[in-house]
Specification:
Number of strands: 0
Structural class: mainly alpha
Distance between the termini: 102 Å
Helix content: over 70%
């Protein structure tokens, strides 16, 4: 047998060995990943990060970086989370969830312009993502782009007409735009969809009081307090005595 043939056989053997080792790494990585998922579900976030890190060291994937980023967000390590989401995007450029999650982390760090860009990319990748429209609307509110926010809430409601939070959010913007009657319509819809959702009672109450409907408005504030919205009691002391 010639040296050339021996070399080919040896290289092939090494390749097969590497495949076996890679397969073992993937199995071990999957084991740590599953353990991380279970620990995250149980609220053991620090331990979940450790398991996700071991899994990534053995078999790095975009999904694993994204999962570790989510847990870091729960631990309020938003900068660390952004690093993980960015790595996930580097590995998988069309990973809409990673853009969406990075948008949330940027919002938490008050990088509102960056958050809008990430939500916009998530929407580009999945135009039917109602949550991305809703969240982009929230950030536009923080940037005082109220009319742009209304457009996003309109789209979120079109895509998911049973989301009470989108109606409540649009109501808030309408209140800021001095459109109290339209805001009340949105709060009514939010309450219809989720009668135990405290915020729309609170904000509807404020709108009613502003429109001169003090008795009904104060009852809404009281209901918001009953449902756990503690700010309502301060407003009752201020406006309903």
């Amino acid at each position: 047998m010639t040296n050339r043939k021996l070399q080919i056989i040896f290289v092939g053997f090494l390749f097969l060995c590497n495949l076996v080792l890679l397969g073992e790494d993937k199995k071990e990585g999957d084991k740590y990943f599953k353990s991380g998922v279970e620990k995250a579900k149980a609220g053991n976030y620090k331990e979940a990060v450790q398991d996700y890190t071991k899994s990534i060291d053995l078999d790095p994937t975009a999904e694993k970086y994204n999962s570790r980023g989510l847990v870091k967000d729960f631990l309020e390590d938003h900068r660390g989370a952004i690093q993980d989401y960015s790595k996930a995007i580097e590995l998988k450029s069309d990973f809409g969830d990673a853009y969406y999650n990075r948008g949330i982390a940027k919002r938490d760090l008050k990088d509102y312009e960056g958050a809008v860009k990430d939500y916009s990319k998530a929407i580009e990748l999945d135009p039917k993502d109602s949550k991305a429209y809703n969240n982009r609307g929230n950030v536009k509110c923080l940037l005082r782009d109220f009319r742009g926010a209304v457009q996003d809430y309109n789209k979120a409601i079109e895509l998911d007409p049973k989301n009470p939070r989108a109606y409540n959010n649009r109501g808030l913007v309408r209140s800021d735009l001095q459109e109290c009657k339209g805001a009340i319509e949105d709060y009514n819809k939010a309450i219809e969809l989720d009668p135990k959702y405290a915020k729309p009672y609170y904000f509807r109450g404020l709108c009613k009081i502003k429109l001169g409907e003090k008795e009904s408005g104060c009852l809404d504030l009281s209901k918001a307090g009953e449902l756990g919205y503690d700010d309502a009691y301060d407003k009752i002391k201020e406006l309903c005595q």
